[in-house]
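Exercise 7. Given the encoded structure of a 224-residue chain, write a plausible sequence.
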């Protein structure tokens, strides 16, 4: 029953966006509205369950993509594998992707339960960068890409915390360019999923592949 409620709720999200109501889900399931509250006491609890499921599904796909690259030192191949998997999952699950990376849902505040599953895909995307840096295989980017060290102590502390949370080495120099690259990866996926490439780019595979290649160069991983 829980699985069926989630399935119908996703249909509502795909059709109506964030306008999700338990009564509407119950109506489509031909059940009295009071019955659905035994499974999900509120709309927000149903949304949280859907969000955790979506993050987990995407992260499982990203982890599998990284694991499918046999040569662990093939850092660029791993970057491409995970990056393309994120895109492919988003295109195959547009409603779930919009739920976790689209516009915030009015009146909904995600609980801390969503944080660990949300971090997993970012960790999977960054794992090859973190391991390349630990192995001394990150190439220093050249000007004008190279950035001087920040003079903002609070920002530097945030970068250190992010590096620790995402599995980068202590004192990582790759964490900031990786976070920038990850932001661009999700931005590129958003442009495609939400129709921002319509009437502009039809060769989407080629476009995204070149985005990944440019971002890899920015971070400092190369074919060698």
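Solution.
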């Amino acid at each position: 029953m829980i699985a069926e409620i989630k399935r119908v709720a996703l249909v509502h999200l795909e059709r109506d966006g964030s306008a999700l109501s338990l009564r509407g889900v119950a109506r489509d399931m031909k059940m009295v509205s009071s019955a659905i509250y035994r499974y999900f006491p509120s709309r927000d609890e149903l949304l949280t369950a859907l969000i955790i499921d979506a993050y987990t599904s995407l992260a499982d796909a990203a982890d599998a993509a990284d694991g499918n690259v046999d040569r662990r030192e093939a850092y660029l191949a791993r970057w491409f594998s995970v990056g393309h998997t994120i895109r492919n999952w988003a295109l195959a699950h547009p409603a779930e992707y919009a739920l976790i990376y689209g516009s915030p849902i009015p009146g909904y505040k995600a609980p801390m339960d969503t944080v660990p599953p949300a971090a997993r895909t970012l960790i999977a995307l960054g794992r090859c960068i973190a391991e390349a840096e630990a192995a001394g295989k990150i190439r220093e980017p050249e000007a004008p890409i190279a950035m001087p060290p920040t003079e903002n102590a609070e920002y530097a502390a945030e970068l250190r915390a992010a590096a620790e949370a995402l599995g980068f080495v202590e004192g990582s120099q790759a964490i900031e360019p990786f976070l920038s690259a990850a932001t661009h990866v999700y931005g590129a996926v958003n442009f495609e999923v939400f129709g921002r490439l319509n009437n502009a780019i039809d060769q989407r595979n080629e476009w995204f592949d070149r985005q990944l290649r440019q971002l890899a160069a920015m971070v400092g991983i190369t074919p060698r």
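Remark. The first helix runs from residue 2 to 16. Students should compare their own answers with the one above.
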